[in-house]
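Notebook, bench 3.
Goal today: get a predicted structure for Na+/melibiose symporter from Myceligenerans crystallogenes so we can plan the truncation constructs. The sequence was checked against the plasmid map this morning, with no discrepancies at the termini. Length recorded as 428 residues. Pasting the sequence as submitted so the record is complete.
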Amino acid sequence: MTHEAAAVVGPETDDASPPAAGTAASGPGTDPAAHLRTPAFRWLTTGWAATNFADSALTFILAIWIADLTGDPIAGGLNFAMLGLPALASPFLGALADRVSRRKLMAWAYVGGAVVLLPLFWVKDAATAWVIYPVTAVYALVAYVTAAGQSGLLKDLMPDAALGHANARLATIDQVFRVAMPFLGAGVYAFLGAHFLVVTTVAAFAVAAVVFFALRITETMVPPTQRVSPRELADGFRQLYAVSPLGGLTTAMTIALASVGLINGVTFAIMEDLGIPNAWLPPMLVLQGVGGLLAGALLPRMMARWGRARVVAVGLLLAAAGLGPVPLGLVVPTVIAQFAMGFGLTSAVVAYVTERQVVTALELQGRTGAASALLLNFPQVPVTVGAAALLAVWDWRLIVVVNVAALLLCGLAGLRVRQAAPPAPEPR
């Protein structure tokens, strides 16, 4: 598959002439990492940072908030399920992202994200805590719009050889917020309350919207000559299984990330059993962010040396190692092991996403990205709900052991998947 580079300019100017097909935009030379220094990508990372602040500020706090208001740890665990529910809209979002400006679609999604959070100011007590559930679902929908649009934007922005570097850079930004926000978010929640966090999240969404409205990039879109058909919606799913090794990696990642719903469903039960306050959850997971941060720095070299398929498999095995100490009920080993969990999951997700982008044509990026978002996220919803229900008959330790076993099996299965061809050289 060939990649035709699009003309890209920064927000400070709107005029640019497209380069010849197959040439690099903005003259970054032959070094793939040089594409990360173009004005457009720098502007994109600014919007990505604002988006990640908005995404990470409330993800854990909303679950903690509803658990505290209701006094029910299961209620908090079920809120994690609401984060995966919007994945059902992914096929439609993917078709839309391939037909319209992905940049504008994402910008308007951030405007919507800011507006949908406003009902949270009505939440005061257990009687109004139910409002958090629908708000969480729509709040999470923004991330699925981003997943549908971001893949195509990056593919338009740079050649295939630079996609691994770009995804690793964006993952690094993700993990910076994963490291910083647990302390900041937990501190703000404890001393200033959840409503102050809602204000800052609304502001972050507003900043992201402004950045993406200002970004200038020549985009590849499918002309809307007909209504969206079921076949068009299914094109993304077909692409995931049409080429090797993407099909095998998709199966392994789908099962592995679905199994993570088990730990999500029993998280607050674990903390209650260990006598840990709910507000301590984000700081306890900070080493996940540190592990992910290191993964972001090393991933371009890892993918170049081992191949993306092998990185996915090793990442899932490391994630299993990160969950291994949890059933022991020992706080310190559990917290330390979160480093492996963060490194492993970040590595697996970034390598998988890069493989998907590289083997997928530009006009299919939105639908394929949305299809993978559905497969990798929605199964967590019933698994999370099922894990919470299983607490009535199973000890949480057994549920976590099942999660560890699933990750191990998926990692081992991933080792049997072979890269279809040697990975493209990625100069250091």
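The longest helix spans residues 39-70. DSSP finds 16 helices and two strands in the chain.
Flagging this for group meeting.
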